[in-house]
Amino acid sequence: MDFCRPGKAAEVCMFLSIREMEQRKLVFDETFPPGEVEFLDSKLRQVSPLRAAGSAALVSASLGAVRIQGRLSVEMEAECDRCLEPAGYPIKADFDLYYEPMAHIARAEEVEIGARETEVGFYEGDGLELKEILRERVLLALPMQRVCRQDCKGICPVCGQNRNQRDCSCQPKPVDDRWAALKQF
After folding, report:
1. Among 113, 73, 78, which residue's Cα sits nearest to residue 95?
2. CA pair distance 127, 133, nearest whole angstrom
3. What's residue 173's pLDDT?
4. Phi and psi at residue 45, to the nearest 5°
5. pLDDT tens, the chain, 185 aa long
6. Domain ranges of the chain
7. Buried b (16+ CB within 10 A) or exposed e, 86-123
8. How far apart are alpha carbons 43 and 155 in whole angstroms?
9. Which residues are within 8 A (CB) of 168 and not within 5 positions of it... i.e. 6 or more apart?
10. In terms of Cα–Cα distance, which of 89, 90, 79 is closest to 162?
11. Beta carbons of 52 and 134 less than 8 angstroms apart
């Protein structure tokens, strides 16, 4: 079931409306084709459809807090950080997220947040966009260092040859001796 904001095109979208959640729990099972979710990183590419299934509901006895639970799966592709060749990253992740209205923390002065607030997301307006939530979850599920394989040899810093494809006979440049004193520490 798609819930789109009024006036939105009939594209695949899902707006998790607070007003709808006041009536009932929202259940979603959506598939976003490659290119539908923008990841804003030119080196990161969605290779397979992004599939997400789960539910969104208001937390009882709260003032607008929302709990979103589900599972997502997608295949992403990015350049290897060592050799710059394309590498695939299959992602399958469960999520259990809490969101509160921004008005709960919005103040003119700076406010210290506690440990509880670091585990909670905040939203403005009438609800949340599922695409935005999924984009964040995918980006957080990707490894910090993206390598094609653990034993990737990378590229030669002298000639630029991919050492996974062919070894080169380049000698590394000598280290600047001005920094040698720091090795003592």
Report:
1. 73
2. 12
3. 72
4. -135, 135
5. 444 444 444 344 589 999 999 999 999 999 999 999 998 888 899 999 999 999 999 998 778 899 999 999 999 999 999 999 999 999 999 999 999 888 766 665 676 766 665 678 889 889 999 999 999 999 999 999 999 999 999 999 889 999 999 988 888 777 677 877 777 77
6. 15-152, 154-185
7. ebebebeeebebebbbeeeeeeeeeeeeeeeeeeebeb
8. 18
9. 156, 158, 159, 161
10. 79
11. yes
Q: Are 135 and 38 in contact (CB under 8 A)?
A: yes
Token pair 């060749």: residue: 85
Give the separation between CA 96 and CA 56, rounded to whole angstroms: 10
Length of the chain: 185
| Tokens 């599922």, residue located | 130
